[in-house]
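W.,

You were right to be curious about this one. When I first looked at the sequence I had no strong expectations either way, so I just let the prediction run and decided to look at it fresh. Below is the sequence, 129 residues in total, followed by the output.
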Amino acid sequence: MDTEEQRPLPRTAAEKMLLLLKLLRDRLKVEAAYGGPDHEHGRNLRTLAYCLKFNRAWDREKFLKQEFGTSVSRLDTFLELVASSMDYADSTVTQLKPSKVQLNRPLLQEIYDKVREIRDRVSSTNPRF
């Protein structure tokens, strides 16, 4: 069972459009800051942003598997990003200079653990030579 707060899914066309526009806005911000859709760091940031928006762990896991497939190296670089995000959330910088958006440390840990589990599973089924 999910322990996260469950937000209702948008029901009306207007609510769905608003959600779509918010996600698009977030994506454009990341692409503008990190070099477009083909840049790995930008891609990882978008992936993390999407993971933070999912209400259910199952949806997040499905998305991660689709995004990374069996690429251990891509999973590793994403793990590094999530780990650095957790470090930032734990740092005093966020306490001294809070931003508008607070990082959800428990959710970041959940994402980290799930990606690590996926990576370990992929590594064990695809041994390196």
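Here's what jumped out at me. The mean pLDDT is 81. And, maybe more interesting for your project: Helices lie at 13-34, 40-53, 57-68, 72-90, 93-96, 105-125.

Coffee later to discuss?

I.
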